[in-house]
Description:
The protein is mostly beta strands. It contains 1 helix and 19 strands.
Amino acid sequence: MKTALSLAVLAATTASFAMAAPAAAKAGDPIKVSDDLTIDPIIEGNLRWEHVDQDNAGLDADAVTMRIRAGAEATTHGLSLLAEAEGTLAISDHYNDTIAGNNGYLGAEPYSVVADPQNVELNRFQLSYKGKAAKVTIGRQRIILDDARFVGNVGWRQNEQTFDAIRGEAKVGPVSLDATYSISQRTIFGVDSPNAYFDGDFILVNAAVDVKPVKITGFAYMLDYDTRIAFSSQTYGVMAAGSLPLGGKAKLDFKLRYASQQDYKLNPVHYSADYYGAELGASVAGFGLKGGVEVLGSDDGVAAFQTPLATLHAFNGWADLFLTTPANGLRDYYGGLSKKFGNAGPLKGLNGAVVYHKFESDFGSVNYGQEWDASLGFAVAGYPVLLKYANYDAKAFGTDTEKFWLQVSFKY
């Protein structure tokens, strides 16, 4: 009954939203105020239904949420000021938003977790200057490094992760440098959560050289948390990624990565763990095929390699069972198939994907479980629509979990 009601609310809200929104609007077009000043409005939204079914984990969750971001960026002579507010409305709140006391419950709500709490916050407020070869940004900002495996904005969740930081970026020929000093990680959990933010001293450095067909990146991330000290760490690594033509439009993509992590500053646990990642992919005639392995190592079960600033939903399965690496580490063997179908009547840019994961521990040879993920995306009248599904089959870690998402978004 709750699922049917949630779908009805989603359908009604989507219909009224589609009628009210101007489909002809175009994103990315700054308004020219004068010869020296432009203003780029920011208006975007995301309407989503998320259903979660977990064995022995409380009641099934049904969350219908609407996220709106609004603001503007003014630019003159390379100097830009950006301000953006973000608000998430819980239209149907039959879910555990991770904030104890919400929705009339004194403790944790008796549903599975959907980490999209109702929330209004200042998402970004930044001042930046961009020259011919360098850019400096100060303030609350979005930071995504490489593929967001170690540092990202957690863009899948409704409330975005941002950072209070100063960041410098420079590029000279094939060489680029990206360095950030941050004093606060502004999380996805909303302003009412005790985990709304984590302060500390965070140093993030990337240096890359792009020598086609490969780009080699070295990185160093030093995280010194004030209170979240179990995640204080120093990580050093290197990544090589690129594409090789196979003839015609076919190509072979590759990504290789290694990193070493140790405890840092006030972390009470002394450990050392390695990360290995290798992925190969091929694109032929609209089909995409990929396979790989990712290892987040363990120091003999004492502690494991962690990535607390990452966009974690994009890795190790969409069911999100491994947002924190188990102490015995994680080995993720995965393979996937995707297809771009093109336009199908009113469905524009139709595409689909299926991914399989096999999860094991790095220490102790434990069979954690396996997972199937699938997605279908297209646009209707200019509005992107996404359907996603995740099914985690637990063996020795977590619980059997099914998740389904339906979302419609817009951006002007």
